[in-house]
Amino acid sequence: MSRSVRVIWDDALTSYDFGPTHPLAPVRVELTMALARGLGVLDRVELAGCDPAGDDELAMVHKRDYVEAVKRVSVSGAPDLGCGLGTMDNPAFKGVHEASALIAGASLAAARAIWEGAAEHAVNIAGGLHHAMPAMASGFCVYNDPALAIAWLLERGVGRIAYVDVDVHHGDGVQTVFYDDPRVLTISLHESPRTLFPGTGFPEETGAEGTAVNVALPAGCGDAGWLRAFHAVVPPLLHEFRPEVLVTQHGCDSHALDPLANLMLSVDGQRAAYAALHRLAHETTAGGRWIAVGGGGYELVQVVPRAWTHLLAEASGHPIDPATRTGEEWRRYVRERTGETPPLTMTDGRNPEFRDISAGYDPADPIDRAVIATRKAVFPLHGLDPMP
């Protein structure tokens, strides 16, 4: 399906570093790029650098006084709790503005590539900082790069943009920025806010004309249930909304091994989600215009590198056989870099099959109840029947 794919990368993107004990460790993107390179994935894409986002670009989403506060922290390294820097989630560090602006610039470069026709798909795996608010750092996120990419495209006349967020945490920052903007459809599939940060993302949060969509899944949900929920909500809404561009956030912290959350997906289930989003980028009115960004993911060796290498391979149009071995050179590098035992293959050995909700739903099943709650909240606002 893919024609041209641009991956935005600069080694300096790993400078977004909250310190050696913080769960958002930049080694995860370093290992991802090394694995993708070792498996030949990067041979099938165009690698391109980027410039940091400028103040006017950041101001499309963020308050200017917030940007100035981040800059002050960046120089001094001193906390500023007024802008959310200096907490356990968001430690202050010297250079935080420059590191954050570069990640934002990478997603803007992805948007520019799509807009100018230089690429059909564009990927920034270092991005996906979806919790950042207009005037506050939140949830490991300083500047909201997916929201900036969307805002940049809107300023250039794109009429409808769909954003699909598969991170285990609610995409609250992006939803907040566009909550009252009917040009942007935000769909977030996440663990229930009753059991996980940030405590938002209930089905009743529907935004302008039903363009905020939230699927709040119960803790313990695995591949079959997650994929069932995805297919019950995302494809019908995307087809009805008719986006001109699809933007997707690919936090892989929905994996069973992730230490910060409670869903139970496998790398195989995540790979199936990436393939489904790729198809939708082509099958909908987006016409293949697809921007994909990273996101959360805190199992740094077993999960993130494999999940996002699958994402890059899927975007390239050359998916990786799950049985593919990771390669001895990469495994040696992982041991040297982290001291951990790396995975041998690109699969968890799961077959991510699911039963489509069109065959009927079970009101006693908490996953089906979550799906129906979302469909009842938003489907009628799009002229869709909420019941299967």
From TrEMBL:
SUPFAM superfamilies with a match to the protein in the record: Arginase/deacetylase
Tagged with keyword DNA-binding: no
Start and end residues of each Histone deacetylase domain: 22-313
Entry-linked Pfam families: Hist_deacetyl
Pathway field: Ketone degradation; acetoin degradation
Keywords: Acetoin catabolism
InterPro entries: AcuC, HDACs, His_deacetylse_dom, His_deacetylse_dom_sf, Ureohydrolase_dom_sf
Keyword Metal-binding set for record: no
Stated family: Belongs to the histone deacetylase family.
Stated name of the protein: Acetoin utilization protein AcuC
Upper taxonomic lineage: Bacteria, Bacillati, Actinomycetota, Actinomycetes, Streptosporangiales
Gene: acuC
